[in-house]
Known about the structure:
Elements: H1 4-12, H2 16-46, H3 50-76
Amino acid sequence: MLSLVPTMMHATGQPLDKIVRQVVADLYASADRFDKATESLKAKAEAFGPEMLRSVASFVAAFETFQTGCFHYYVRSRRYGVSKYELPDGSFAIPLGGDDDGEA
């Protein structure tokens, strides 16, 4: 994710705001596809009995926990400096130009 925006800007020549909108839209679409895929997988697992359904549900939960953990690490790590941009509702407002001391 860290290099996706500049890579897309270089590859397409599109401006930052357009790339960011596209990346956000792609992330929402990806999450929707994931949710649909997990529901489909659980439905198929159900045909093999409750133990298989529990195993698949456990696998999905582990994957979601891993992804959430990676995001949490990224947000909280001093390495990336993102936590200072967290808003009261838990979302983030990260400036996309220059650094936070006013220099570009």
